[in-house]
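Subject: for your reference before the review

Hello V.,

The reviewers asked for a structural picture of the protein, and I figured it would be easier to keep everything in one thread rather than splitting it across files. Below is the amino acid sequence we used in the manuscript, unchanged from the supplementary table.
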Amino acid sequence: MNKLQYVLAVCAFVVFCVLWITYETPFIQAFDEVAFNTLYGNSFIAIFHYLGETKFIFAIMILVLILLWIRKQDYRLMVFVLLSIGVGYGLYQFLKRIIERPRPEIVDQFSTFSFPSGHAFHGLVYLFTISYLITLHFNSKKISLILWISAIILAVLIGFSRITEGRHFASDIVAGWLLGYSWFILCVWWLNREHRNLSDQTKRLKSTRT
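And here is what came back from the structure prediction:
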């Protein structure tokens, strides 16, 4: 991760906060209406909501943790996964209850709150986390590029699927992406800091032995 990505994460969080404050304004409501009229009822995009279901994401998380434990035994990476995906789930659920934005008015609507979208947040976070873990172990720029492009496309489709089904406003989706990216980068920053600390400790240990 370079400095630009950290700057983008800060900017994304600022825009998230702006959306939080302004989602009831006429401009955002008009944006939500245009997105709804464009995407609502698209059966192909709606399929992708399954990839953003909480049970599916946590199943993937457990599988990743098992693989890390068996093959790498890198407990920092395991904590990173728990932070990004596990604690991330608690973060957006907490914010939903703080903000308390009602969902769009459709038949058989969910009773839970709408802002930010959990599918958008969690979908982006787990896809980016997996892509990051894989690229750590491959030096191929081609593989990394394919992984990240695929992750971005899937995250977008997962978010759009909630508009096609009328479960979220478009501003909920954008907020979920923004917050999810910020949270993911924060977790990467923590991981990089831990690895630097470990590297420094190893160097100090070697220097004392010599």
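For the response letter, the relevant points are probably these. The chain has a mean pLDDT of 90. Residues 15 and 30 are 18 Å apart (CA to CA).

Happy to draft the paragraph if you're swamped.

O.
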